[in-house]
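From the shared-data thread, chain only:
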Amino acid sequence: MPDTNTLASDLKIDGNFNLFKTLSLKENIQDPYPVYHLLREYDPVFFMKSPTGFLSENIWILTRYDHISSVLINKKFGRGNRFGKGKITANYAKLNSLTQMRQHWVNFLDPPDHTRIRGFINKAFSPKMVNNLKPDIDSVVTYLLDRFQGNETEFISEFSYPLAAITIAEFYGIPKEDRDILDKWAMQIVRTLDVVTNQFTQDDLKNIYRSADEIKDYFRKHVDEKERNPKDDLISRLLNIEDKGDRLSKEEIIASLVLMIMDAHEAPKNMITNGLYALLKNPDQYEKLKKDTSLAEGAADELLRYDSPAQFTGRRTHEDETVGGKEIKKGLQIICMLGAGNRDPQKFSEPDRLDIERKNVIPLSFGGGIHFCAGAGFAKLEALSAFENIARNFPNIRLKDKEYRYHDSLHSRGLESLEVILK
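Structure, as tokens:
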């Protein structure tokens, strides 16, 4: 392999290539997939030197599906406990609210702390319980679609955002009218999860810390209320689940609720919005769905693969390990580019083509292994209901003729707006 490989007229990849700096360019925010293809062709297990960002350290970048999948399930790779500790220490009260909550966020924990907290969450998020929510989700979808007025609508504000916010509010057992303030807090805090690419100003940090204080206080009040008056909702279940005499503490419950509400607002919203955008950009595929809405389940997986709402996730090596023929030393960080793996031609034939009838699609978008997204089933139910009902009720829906832009986030991929013509 040459030291420098020019893979496109305006892109050179060599030992000093910085993927995240390249992805930050306007044209690559819009479409990162050509960059992924070029890097995978150059080196699917790429050692990137000191990226500019929150962690600023040498990291390995994976872009091939099989490499990513194997790392996500390999116990030699973990989250590293860089932020999470799992246990309350003597200095806990002196920490700010964000740092306190991160102590208990399962996405920063490894076993045994992860195993314990995730076990309680899994019991509260059982597949049977999630499937029982389908009638409620269908009801919200119908309600929102019935509210469409006139010949045009802005799809995110009128459908995909309120769908995610209303359903999670009902699931949690909190007032639906609180959804906007919760989203405001959550969108500040979720920025801290993108620890590779984010850099914060002092004003950013003030807003993040204030949001953490306020959302923690909000959930503490609701946890206290559910303790006094339990209902059939997630908060009450987390309070009452017991395992061999062990229960989650209130601090652990509050932290878990905050983490889950960040995911529950952002991921389903972007999954549904990105998915509809892809369908309308590929009208032959929407035509198939209109004619046979039973294709919706497979379409949901294919749309997740095609344009993932989560573009990457990180791991850290607990032991020396080999990936793709390269030795990765203990303690180093690995970034698994989920969006790249989902477009890997060794895994998917014609990966840049949307095909809602594609068989055996298992997207990487929800992660894998012990850190597989606990709310994946919930998000997929929302998407499934949305695609089925939109195809059934709006056969002539199409994009308004304008330029559509994605948010300037490298991790969470979602459109700024989506304006559609309904009839």
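The chain has a mean pLDDT of 89.
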